[in-house]
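Reopening this ticket.

The earlier resolution said the output was attached, but the attachment link was broken on my side. Pasting everything inline this time so it's all in one place.
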Amino acid sequence: MTNPFTLTKEQYQELYQEVLLFAKIGGVVNDEGGIWKMCHEEFVNELLPAIEAEDRIKVIDGVCDSFVVFTQLHHHFLSKPSWEQPQPDCGAITAYTYSIDSVVIESAIKTKYERLVPFIMEYVVGYGEYLAQDFNFNLYKAIKEVNRSNMTKFVSQMSLIERYGFAADWTQLAAEECEELSNGKYKNVWAKCNSYRTNELNVVIFRENFGKGKICKPAWAFKEPDFTHCLLEKS
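Inline output:
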């Protein structure tokens, strides 16, 4: 029987590839500055306070979102030519090999310590497994659910044409509505069609800061993750 608090090699690879597909569609694969910023937002600003507050659902969401952004960070650096990849800090790894806490990850984020990136997923997954056991949830199912939810940020082009008609500026209208419905969360939202096709339909991506910021959640389409099936009863 699979341990619900850990990831098998196959599960890890499956979830990793799902995140990369999301990042590729969203156009954030090589946005190094944006990825570091998201790591800080999801891990330092979201997950750590949730742990402190013992908020189970927010902890689950934070663990999963951290997996998503650190996967992007890990892939970004390791996809570079070998001579451009950061030299691993083996000394730090030796010192923290058996330490499952947030110190190493938080420190790497705040200093943008590239030499720890080659090993960052070991820390992130290990810490996630520790929290999954502590807060009693199925880690694989939870990350899978967040990956599913994230894909609903992308809206089919046809649905937007149906929503706004064949106006020449329908992407601008969609971007303006996405920003308006965010109640100030997103600024200067930009919408762009992507060649990726789902169910034979092109999709539209919304990003703030004139297309250079984070991927937005269009309120009429985005489906929040539902962790009900991920929660485990205490034995």
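Reporter confirms the inline version is readable. Residues 177 and 218 are 8 Å apart (CA to CA). Confidence is low (pLDDT under 50) at residues 94-100.
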